[in-house]
Structure formats: C-alpha cells, structure tokens
Amino acid sequence: MTMPQDSLAGGAQGFFRLSVGLRWRLALGVGFACAAALASFGLLFLSGWLLAGAAVAGLGGQAVARAFNIVLPATGVRFFAMVRILARYLERVVAHDGALRLGGHLRAWVYARLAPLAPAGLVDQQGGDLLGRFVSDTDKVAAYYTDVALPFLRALLCGVVFVGVFACFTLPAAALLAAGLLLGGVLVPLLAGPAMDRLVRVEAEQQSHIQAELAQTLQNMGEYLLLDAASGRARLWQVQQAGMDKACWKLDVLESAARGLITLITFATALGVLVLAVNACRAGQLSVAEVPMLVLGVLAAFDVAAPLPLARQAAAQAKLATMRLDAACPPSAPRPVVQGADLPHAPYDLVVRDLSFAYPKTVSPVLQNANLIIRQGEHVGLIGPSGIGKSSLINLLFGFYVPDSGSISFGGVDVSTLCAEDMAAFVSVAAQDFHLFAGTLRDNLLLAAPHATEQELADVLETAQLTQFIQSLPQGLQTWVGNDGLRLSGGQARRVAVAQALLRGTPWLVLDEPTEGLDAPLEQALMAALVQRCERTTIVCMTHRQAVLPFMHRVIRVEDACFRPGGGSDMKS
Ligand SMILES: Nc1ncnc2c1ncn2[C@@H]1O[C@H](COP(=O)(O)OP(=O)(O)OP(=O)(O)O)[C@@H](O)[C@H]1O
To answer: Which residues are listed as membrane-spanning (predicted)?
Structure first.
C-alpha cells in the first residue's frame, strides 16, 4: 500500500490519493450500489406495468385477458427483486470493507505523520483534541467513500440510465425526469451546501473543544478537585455541549428541509410525467399500462436523489476532517539523509561545540556558545537552577530540537545525522516527566527490554531499591500500576523509571532527578547501588540534590547559558 506523501486536503483529491491500491475494490462497491439502484428501479417500473396491464386485461373481457401474457413481466419482477437483494448485500460487504480498509490506511498515514513530530512538534497540541482527530476525523474522511462518493456516483450513473429508459418511451417525460433529477440532485445540495459547511465547522470546533477539555479534566481530576475547579469544568462543558447540540440541531433541520424539497420535486415530477404520459397515451404513443409504469418509475428514480443532502453534509464533514488532519500532522522537516551514515562507536564520548539554542517562539537562548565534553565511563552531575537548561540537553542530544548553531557529536558521530531511535540504542533516559503506562509493573519494565530475563529484572529492581517493595505486594511484579502509575508513590514510580533505564543496558545513562521524593537513607542506597552497578557506564545525573553529587566523578553547572565546572575534578573519594 502506497501512502500519500503529501497533504490530504482538497476533499475528493485527498480521498483519491488515499485510495491508491483500493480503487478496484471501491469501484466494485459503486458497481454493486448502481446495480441495486437499477434493480430497484426495474422492479417498480415493471410492477407498475404489470399491475396496470393486468387491470386493463381484466377490464377488457376474456379475449384481452387471454392475450395478456403475465409470465414475462412477472419473471422480470422476480428477477429484479432477486438482483436487488443480492446487489444490496454485495454492496454492503464490498463497500463497507473498502471503507474499513481506507480507514486503516488513513490511520497509518496519520500515525506515520504524527510519530516524527513527537515530542517537540506536539508541544502546542492538546492530547484530547489530537485523539479526537485521530479517531473521529479519520472516520469522517474514510466515510467519504460510503457517504459521499458512492451516493453521488450512483445518482449520476443511474440518473443517466433512468432518463435513457424514459427516453425510449417518451422524450418529454424523459426531459422532465432529467430536469427533476437535476433540480433535486444538484441544485438542492448546492443550495444547502454553504450553510452545511458553516454548521459542520461550528459543530467540529465545539466537539474538539469538548474532547480536549474532557481528556484534560479526566487526566487531572485530582488537581481540579483540590483547586475546587471541578464544578467550573462541568459548567464549561454544559455551555460547549449546548453549542454543539444547537449546531447539530440546525444541521438536522437543514438536511430534513433539503430532503423535503427533494420529495416535493419528486411528486411534482411524477405529476408532470403523469400528465405527459396521459397525453402521449391519448395520442396513441403509449399504451395504458405504460402510464402508471412511468409514474412509478419517477418515484423509483428519485430514490437515488433522496440521500444527496445527507451526502452533501458528509462531504462538508470529510473536507473539514481532512483539513484538520493536515493541520494536526504537518510533514516533519526532512532529516538530512546521510548515505551510509555511521552509528556512534566506542569510546562513546559526548562533545558539544559552540552550541547555541533557543526554543521556538522564545527569546532568551537556553544555551549560548556552550562547550562540553563528557568521556565514556564518567559519572557527571549536571546542576543549575530550575529552568536553566539542564533537561534541554536531552532534547538536543536526541534531535527533538535542532540547535541554532554549533554541534553535538556522540561516539564520533554528529548527532544531527542520527534519529532518536539510533540514539536510544546507546543512551537510556529516566526523564523527569517519565510516564508509566497502564499495565503491570512487569509490563512497564518489559517495555524497556522485552527479552529481559527474570534474573535481569530482579537485578535492576535490586539496584533501584525496589526489591522489598515488590516482595511486599501480594501480586509482586504482576501488580497493576494504574493509569500513569497512579497506584505507586512518586518515589516508587520514579525508581521504576530508573529500573527501566537500567534494564536497557546502554553505555550511557541519563537520569533526571533520580532521587526526587526519596528519603535520605534510600537516596544514599540508590546512588551507591547505581554507581556500583554502572562502573563502566557513563552516568549523567541532573539534580538539585546535594547528596547525589558525592557519588559523581565531577559536577558541571549550567550557568549563563553555558556549561561551567561546578565541582572538583574528582569528587568521589
Ligand atoms: N518545549 C519548550 N518550549 C519552550 N520553552 C521550553 C520548552 N521546554 C523547556 N522550555 C524552557 O527552557 C528553559 C530550560 O528548560 P529545562 O527543562 O531544560 O530546564 P531545567 O534546567 O531542566 O529545569 P528543572 O531543573 O526545573 O528541570 C526553561 O526556561 C523552560 O521554560
């Protein structure tokens, strides 16, 4: 499956690009939908003729009745009834299968776009809104096929056939049917379109606000309760929900009005065709039985126009959804492709040269012409006031942000030629804002090292000073940690993050405030076990805790956007 590389925007164009590889399947779905509509038309058309023909034969006396051949039209009616059932079934199977596949392709496309943006490119996006786009906007774009393309194509193709069939009997009736179908199928959706676009936009905006607020509230319900802000959130939702309900209601009214207008046009056309057919019958151009046949034919023909207002609304939703997805997933800046680029190699030294960096949309640089060398195997404490730029070094090392100038080399390789996954093979990070996933303790540990043995798990838990705690749990490592590790204390969760980093066995370990939330004896025990276990591993420990520093070989202070020596060349005794 080839995914579209460029934008999705443009409604039909975006959909067309997305459907590469599925087009035959989708075309088959349209074919079955047309077959079902044509069979429906044939059924009603022929039934009208059959009923009227039988009635005329009955009234005409025995000779006429004997001459009336009921077998052929009755067989035709049965044939169309069977074809309609079969085609409808196949249409559902093929078209819905195609729509599901489209949805799958689209979600893969969105994920492929979103993943490289994390974390820097997602800083300004709200999680709930993003989730909403990922789920409901992808659904709306995928539904473009079943809810927009299919009804419009069916109306167009079948409409031409219906008019052609009418033309075989009487041209004025065919012209009237064509005019009626154009009015109902083209003009009505065109008239309703702009208002639908506006209401769909209002509805989508309200919905995305509600989703974003809901996700944020559920995630931080504890804080809202503590801040006595929970009832304020509920009121906010009520207002937003009322706004969304109003937009939905207006959309429903508009769509019903458009459908009602098509019904009016249907009956007006049927009436017109009746008059024309009666005149043609009087002129001897049509038989009596053909008059009701044509009238019923009009009713059947308009079956394909009736769903078009709803299809127009779905088109507005799909178009808006493609624009929202495009906006949420801009193409990431292409990384410089370095043919045969090397991976870092031993010794894994970090060399930072004249590095300057400011976060996007900020004025003050976090680093300005900063220089730093950390040799493999060193244990370095990185200190400095809160917000000075210690953690930013991780963002730059992993390429989450691009420096304004200067360079960072790791293991002899310029990190700008590496991706985050490359770096992760050499550097494990227990970040300050670590995240534990809803699962068991074991699940979270194995996420870092899926093939870790029981012995390896036990070893890292021992180093992270978690053995006693795990043994105290009735379910041990099978204990469910809750959403975001909420069933663990802050210090326990942080040590699980440290254990994850240790489990990966990389030559570098970056620990951001590893002992935060620990009492003094536990802090000492953790640091002692860490440095003992990681004798040959480089440790960079970002910390405010003085008690951690004696465990380091040296200390670097971040000051005035530069790295400065912050402690003796060898602090360890
Ligand atoms: N994604 C971001 N966009 C804009 N500014 C940011 C971003 N991340 C961090 N900053 C700013 O950059 C500065 C350095 O942040 P950083 O997290 O590196 O500080 P730190 O020294 O690690 O702080 P702490 O000790 O509190 O963890 C801060 O002023 C912060 O507000």
So the answer is: 26-51, 63-83, 148-167, 260-279, 291-310
